[in-house]
Specification:
The chain has six helices and 21 strands. The radius of gyration is 42 Å and the shape is rod-shaped. Helix 4 runs antiparallel to helix 5. 23% of the residues are buried. By secondary structure, it is an alpha+beta fold.
Amino acid sequence: MTAWKQLSLSFLLLAAGIAAVLAFVPGAADVLRGAGVPEAVVATVAPGEGAKGDKAANGGARRGPDVPLVVAEPVIGGVVNDRLSAIGTGDAIRSVVVMPQAAGTIREILIKSGDRVKQGQVLARLDNDEQIIARGQAQVALRSAAEKSQLYRNIKSSVSRMDVFDAEIVEQGAKLALQAAELALTRRDIVAPIDGIVGIVPVVIGDNVTTATSIVTLDDRSEILVDYWVPERFANTVKVDQPVEATSVALPGRQFSGVVEAVDNRVDGASRTLRIRARIDNAADELRAGMSFSVGMRFAGETHPSVDPLSVQWDGEGSYVWRIADGKSSKVRVSVVQRNPDAVLVRGDLKDGDLIVTEGLQRVSEGGAVRFAREVAEAAEVLTQ
């Protein structure tokens, strides 16, 4: 039990003891007045011997020791389904498995795990001797075709127009052959298709690779995409660009903000859930692809009166609470809408600020007068000063 609860209980017991003594000791009120205790305090702790003709604020109802002591809390508004929590898995906003565009032997590796690379940067090179020779041959063939074509154009009078046309066609073909040779040579360089961060490189110099071999994985994790699933009843509630909050097991206590990136177009028939994708900013590069996330979303649900769980009672007709108004108690029928760890949302004739009894419920009756334990404790504190 915490210190403040122990202190409150001590005051309550002291007040009850003083009230009991005053109730059974004749003339106790006069003793208090003689000691200089204010008349308001005397009327609180010894109402049976208060000033003559003095009436209680509840219309003259007796407020003696037999009037039950209660603790009451005001009604506040609560929102149903105001928060949704789900577990999801993160992925980089862009992730590429880099593969070579040609088969060959790796001659050079220019990156290592963890490097940041730019789009178009060379990551590794394959052997290219054959491609260099093929490019040289194509260059020679183009030069020969170009000279022959130029010669035929200069001596048009000595050759037929068909010969000139054929020479030009050969020249164009040589140009295309050179472009093909240069492309084949270029493809011996393995380049980064996106900006990103290099993962573990699984190959080494000397490996023979094909177009199906994974050279490295690049992740652009400037933003993280988190896929998670929500119950079917939220299908028409979740919207694109709706704010989300995410936490990661790897970074306890840290919260990351994001928005809904996409909402799937169908509900899964087996699990009755809807797939949602959120986008979370990762400018500080603290998050990694593959991390698990707890994603929270808030919704503007229906508002209902919120009361302490201890205040809800049951009888043969259902659930109810005791409301205090003008020093008297009255039974108000309610129906439970949602139970939370620290509050119960109910539906009933209650409004914000209504005082609801949470302790001392056993002695409360319909239309009966009550005393607030807080007032008795304050009066006891005055007496002990």
